[in-house]
Amino acid sequence: MHIEASTVSDIAWHEQALCAQTGSDFFFPEPGSSVREAKRICGLCTIRSACLEYALANDERFGVWGGLSEKERLQLRRGRENG
User: Fold this and answer.
1) Model pTM greater than 0.85?
2) Of 73, 71, 67, nearest to 39 (Cα)?
3) pLDDT at 25
4) 1 has a pLDDT exceeding 50
5) Which of 49, 60, 61, 56 is nearest to 79 (CA)?
6) Is 11 helix (H, G, I), strand (E, B) or coil?
7) CA atoms in the 13 A half-sphere facing the CB of 73
8) Is residue 10 scored above 80 in pLDDT?
């Protein structure tokens, strides 16, 4: 299996992210559950922008990434495409 070096460096930020120090349950809640706690944690994280850019670049469709839910990322993506 071939892994490009850029892939590894692209996710190196994750080791410093606050979500790496908490459980994934906050960031990937059951459908209909609140994402409030995940967003609060993201709001305190210094790596938030790198996380969001990673999610947008890799079309992450589930969970909270960079402080945004699936729907919020979709809206942002559409805004970037139309803007």
Assistant:
1) no
2) 67
3) 87
4) no
5) 56
6) coil
7) 21
8) no
